[in-house]
Automatic annotation (TrEMBL):
This is NnrS family protein. The keyword Cytoplasm does not apply. The chain crosses the membrane at residues 26-48, 73-92, 99-120, 126-144, 156-174, 186-208, 229-247, 253-271, 283-310, 316-337, 349-367, 373-396. The keyword Membrane applies. It holds the Pfam family NnrS. Keywords: Membrane, Transmembrane, Transmembrane helix.
């Protein structure tokens, strides 16, 4: 139910809208809506360019492709992470759930960052940086406080990853301010690889666990997922090392070699998780597909850096659209149902959203030589908009209405 706050003048309670009562509600809904809006702006700009028209007059100071990269990583993906951490960390630590006041405040900080970046052409770049960079420290304050109350050694890795996210965003803003030269692209890449490392850690926990629970419910206890501890540790370590290797002073050959190793180990981890057994449950198989795209993305990007077998940005988008896009959509659709008290079964429009996003990733990564630049970008972008438009349409009532009583 919505939270109630007494009114000062009449003593009647003021009811906080349901969407502000839990982190997953506000941030998962905002992430879906914002991703549709941001991708629509990007595809419209590309469409105008493809038609030979003049560039849209937009109030952003940075190049449109850098705005696109920044907002999809530090706007969309970070919002999903916020919804996840604000909801999951209290459960991990057995501490009090995050209240409506923090959700509202942090949500406003996130929104202010989006507006500051959008109007960056008419605002002081230092102000834009200060407003946009504020969100991750605000989020981290809630995470650190709860982890400090309980022994959560294995979860401290998330604080390091949040620091890396902040660093990637900082690199982009320092470049836009003019204090560094050419680091915006490196900052975006650091953000993508940090997000990929989040998937390597979190996905390595939830994919086999959720699959195990589902197979047990189905009476398939003879062939449950198997996780090998040494392989999991190796996969997580390699994902963290690839994140560090994104720093500008690290040779690309080192990053490439680490990505190849991370890709191989990630795919090896996946082989023990009984993915084929989930083929009739979309809410499960999308998790396996996302982890598959993580391994494939690491591998393709590494081979591209080492041997030049593919176009670098296309390979990078197999991680960005494929792994990050699919896993964030998978986690939002599943976690929202569970925390809203609804059955863990997705509707047909959400299955269509899963498929549209997978195709969007494959088109963006592999269609360029056949379809051409603008055709590839517009098709992939339109499929992304379709996927998250369907998600926002289906989940709007789920995230804005009170939890169902069982």
């Amino acid at each position: 139910m919505a939270a109630s706050i007494p009114s000062r003048d009449q003593g009647t309670p003021f009811r906080v809208p349901t969407v502000f009562t839990a982190g997953f509600r506000f941030f998962f809904l905002s992430a879906g809506l914002f991703s549709v809006l941001a991708m629509t702006v990007w595809t419209l700009w590309l469409g105008i360019q493809a038609a030979g028209g003049e560039a849209m007059a937009v109030p952003i100071a940075m190049a449109p492709q850098l705005w696109h990269a920044h907002e999809m990583v530090f706007g969309y993906a970070v919002a999903v992470m916020a919804g996840f951490f604000v909801t999951a960390v209290p459960s991990w630590t057995g501490t009090k759930e995050t209240g409506a006041a923090f959700v509202t405040f942090s949500g406003l900080v996130w929104l202010a960052g989006r507006l500051a970046v959008w109007f960056s052409a008419v605002l002081d770049p230092i102000l834009v940086a200060a407003v946009d960079l504020a969100f991750v420290p605000v989020l981290s304050s809630a995470v650190i406080g709860r982890l400090a109350q309980k022994s959560q050694t294995r979860n401290m890795v998330f604080l390091a990853l949040l620091t890396a996210l902040f660093s990637g965003n900082l690199m982009m803003h320092l470049d836009w301010i003019g204090w560094t030269g050419g680091n915006a692209e490196a900052g975006a890449r650091l953000g993508i690889f940090t997000s990929a490392a989040m998937i390597a850690v979190i996905g390595g926990r939830v994919v086999p666990a959720f699959t195990r629970n589902a197979l047990i419910r189905q009476g398939m206890e003879d062939d449950l997922p198997r996780s090998r501890a040494w392989l999991d540790r190796c996969g997580i370590l390699l994902s963290l090392l690839t994140t560090l290797a994104c720093l500008p002073f690290v040779p690309e050959t080192a990053l490439g070699a680490l990505c190849v190793a991370a890709g191989i180990v990630t795919l090896m981890r996946l082989t023990g998780w009984q993915g084929p057994a989930t083929r009739k449950e979309p809410i499960l198989w999308i998790l396996h597909v996302a982890f598959l795209l993580l391994g494939a993305g690491y591998l393709l990007y590494g081979l591209t850096l080492l041997a030049g077998i593919w176009q670098e940005t296309a390979a990078l988008h197999l991680l960005a659209v494929g792994a990050i896009g699919s896993m964030t959509l998978a986690m939002m659709t599943r976690a929202s149902l569970g925390h809203a008290g609804r059955p863990l079964t997705v509707s047909r429009p959400i299955v269509a959203a899963y498929l549209a996003l997978i195709v969007a990733a494959l088109v963006r990564a592999f269609a360029l030589p056949v379809c051409g630049y603008f055709e590839t970008m517009l098709l992939s972008g339109s499929l992304w908009i379709l996927a998250f438009g369907l998600y926002s349409w289906v989940y709007f009532p789920i995230l804005t209405q009170p939890r169902q009583r069982k």
